[in-house]
Write a structure and sequence with these properties.
The complex is a heterodimer of chains A (175) and B (449). Chain A has 175 residues and is α+β, with helices and mostly antiparallel strands. Helix content of chain A is 45%, strand content 10%. Chain A has a four-stranded mixed beta sheet with strand order 2-1-3-4, with helices on one face. Chain A is globular. Chain B has a five-stranded mixed beta sheet, with helices on one face. Chain B has a four-stranded parallel beta sheet with strand order 3-2-1-4, with helices on both faces. In chain B, strands 5-6 form a two-stranded antiparallel ribbon. In chain B, strand 7 and strand 8 form a beta hairpin. The longest helix of chain B is centred in the last third of the chain and has 25 residues. The chains are: A alpha+beta (175), B alpha/beta (449). Chains A and B meet through helix 2, helix 4, helix 5 and helix 6 of A and strand 3, strand 7, strand 11 and helix 14 of B.
């Protein structure tokens, strides 16, 4: 069975349903399941992660079984099955980035945020993890932050500190 | 300076927009193909060009197209593979970011050649910004009458959509990509049937890499024979090379196939030499899957001939002393890099990315990762090296898709060429974490394990 630590009931807005509908229209009649990956990205952008209830409602919308959504959500690495920090720093940990210091950057982020990989800072703002090759090897070390998947390249300890500071300020302004 | 076919206008301000791209001669290939050529004419030009798939396998694109089944009343699909995930490869990201209309134009020309009226560009989900760029480019092309119904009044209809992936290397394998596009896990399909017969939604489908599709634009504009004049033998045309690692000028370079490897590494036109005045230790020439080469086999082949950036020359010597062009992911290692650590890192990648369908790959990649980790951290034994050799040999060729081979080859090549470095890790347990093998100084402690 799907190991989900917590659930969160959701109600999709009419705007979100309108976006779902636009996506479904890209495929031939009866092939609406093709919309599953793009729709899960939209849902995650809205709620920050995919709760069981959210996945069940996507299944109902697409007329497929919930397990068909779970198996996709668990297979692909971009979908979060538990709440994360508002900003999840995803650092490329694959070979080429490691040649230019990615491991040092991850150690630094761990120290700076004071949480281990996949944990959330007490203020709920940050989490981080190493991810596999992000296809930006010439600009390494790199990290990305969803849901826009903005890229930060040629990272140094100083640029990471600055980035974290900027995000912290941004979150304060938004609060 | 070599000729540039794909990146000729890359530095023109505003080239991302339809307007500027068009001013620079963009969409001429669409006009030419749709108005003055039959679909079969386009296929013929691509065949003549000798273009080989730029995603990694190097299979002739024109031949792949000619396999497409054309049963009456059944839709055909063109799917572009923009799942770029092979470690060391970032050329498609570059192309889609900076000159998106080159891909859109190629998609229109190629879809016309194949008789597809709906085509998809599958882009890895992490490239959300590139997805937005492509969607904007599609809207611009559509507004200008190059997409949609009755394109340029020729009666040809084409709808083009961008599909995001969910983060999975395996979806670069074409049948896994099709599964993913159908909204499923990216488990590769058993072949046959090949996608050319039963692909997307069971319909005849061609899957081509981003760069291959963009290359059809100059092929249609100038003719396949002109394209084939560039390059050497069966390595025709230009190729985007993603250069990374310990070099002065990492980045994406368009080369005429046939440039000497030594020139590519040391010339200021390309990589600009090894960074920080270090020495070259090793090279992965075509993405993490291809065999790593030690310094003595990089500039020259075992026969002492200059090694060139062509499919044939890179492969010269087979896996014993050669490698592969692959996707053009060119990763350069300087003298401070640890081959054992890098092999462990790559193997962790394949273990993480194995879809889990075939037991040799599912179990073997994780097993190799553990053994390599033990050796790297000074906990290995001499038998472990033979064990690794045995595991990789039992993965290679025994899986549905090439991910198993891709995981086996880097391990085999690392042991073949750097066995002494593996042994040193075993005989110098304490030192293996303190400094690198065989080098006088140690630069940068790797704290993260």
């Amino acid at each position: 069975m799907l190991s989900i630590k917590e659930n969160q009931p959701v109600e999709f807005s009419s705007e979100l349903f309108a976006q779902f509908g636009e996506i479904v229209g890209r495929y031939p009649e009866g092939k609406q399941k093709s919309a599953l990956l793009p729709i899960l990205h939209l849902v995650q952008a809205e709620y920050g992660w995919l709760s069981t209830d959210a996945m069940d409602k996507v299944a109902a919308y697409l007329g497929i079984k919930p397990i068909e959504v779970y198996e996709v959500a668990t297979f692909y690495t971009m979908y979060f099955l538990e709440p994360r920090g508002k900003y999840t720093l995803e650092v490329c940990r694959t070979g080429p980035c490691c040649l230019v210091g990615a491991e040092r950057i991850m150690t630094h982020i761990e120290k700076k945020l004071g949480v281990k990989e996949n944990e959330v800072t007490p203020d709920g703002l940050f989490s981080w993890r190493g991810v596999e090759c992000l296809a930006a090897c010439g600009y390494g070390p790199v990290l990305q932050i969803g849901p826009e998947y903005t890229f930060y390249e040629n990272l140094t300890e100083e640029s990471v500190d600055q980035l974290i500071e900027t995000l912290r300020n941004k979150a304060q302004h938004e609060a | 300076m070599g000729r540039k076919l794909l990146l000729e206008h890359i530095n023109v301000p505003g080239i991302q927009t339809f307007e500027v791209y068009r001013q620079k001669g963009g969409y001429r290939a669409v006009e030419k193909a749709l108005k003055s050529m039959s679909p079969d004419d386009v296929v013929e030009e691509v065949k003549k060009s000798g273009l080989r798939g730029r995603g990694g396998a190097g299979f002739p694109t024109g031949m792949k197209w000619s396999f497409l089944a054309k049963p009456e009343g059944v839709p055909r699909y063109l799917v572009c593979n923009g799942d770029e995930s092979e470690p060391g490869t970032f050329k498609d990201r570059y192309l889609m970011t900076h000159i998106p209309h080159a891909l859109i134009e190629g998609m229109i020309v190629s879809s016309y050649a194949l008789g597809a009226n709906t085509s998809y560009i599958y882009v890895r989900g992490e490239m959300m910004p590139q997805i937005r760029i492509l969607e904007k480019a599609i809207a611009e092309a559509k507004a200008a009458g190059f997409l949609g119904k009755d394109i340029l009044g020729t009666g040809y209809d084409l709808e083009l959509y961008v599909q995001p992936g969910g983060g999975a290397y395996i979806c670069g394998e074409e049948t896994a990509l099709l599964e993913s596009l159908e909204g499923k896990r990216g488990n590769p399909r058993i072949k046959p049937p090949f996608p050319a017969v039963a692909g997307l939604y069971g319909c005849p489908t061609v899957v081509n890499n981003v760069e291959s599709i963009a290359a059809t634009v100059p092929i249609v504009n100038d003719g396949g024979e002109e394209y084939a004049k560039i390059g050497i033998e069966r390595s025709t045309g230009t190729k985007l090379i993603s250069a990374s690692g310990n070099i002065n000028k990492p980045g994406v370079y368009e080369i005429e196939l046939g440039v000497p490897v030594e020139e590519f590494i040391y010339s200021d036109e390309y990589c600009g030499g090894i960074a920080n005045g270090k020495r070259l230790k090793a090279l992965v020439a075509g993405g993490s899957s291809v065999p790593i080469l030690p310094a003595n086999l990089i500039s020259t082949t075992i026969k002492g001939e200059p090694r060139l950036m062509t499919y044939e020359s890179l492969a010269d010597g087979g896996f014993q002393t050669g490698t592969m062009m692959g996707s053009g992911g060119f990763i350069v290692f300087d003298e401070d890099q640890c081959i054992v650590r890098n092999t462990w890192n790559f193997t962790r990648f394949y273990s993480h990315e194995s879809c889990g369908q075939c037991s040799p790959c599912r179990e073997g990649t994780g097993w190799m990762e553990n053994v390599l980790y033990n050796i790297e951290t000074g906990q290995g034994s001499m038998e472990d090296i033979d064990l690794l050799w045995d595991i990789q040999r039992n993965i290679e060729g025994n899986t549905i898709c090439p991910l198993g081979d891709a995981a086996a080859w880097p391990v085999a090549a690392a042991i073949r060429h750097f066995r002494d470095e593996f042994e040193w890790h075993i005989t110098h347990r304490d030192e293996s974490q303190q400094r690198n093998y065989g080098l006088a100084h140690y630069a940068d402690p790797l704290e993260y394990a």
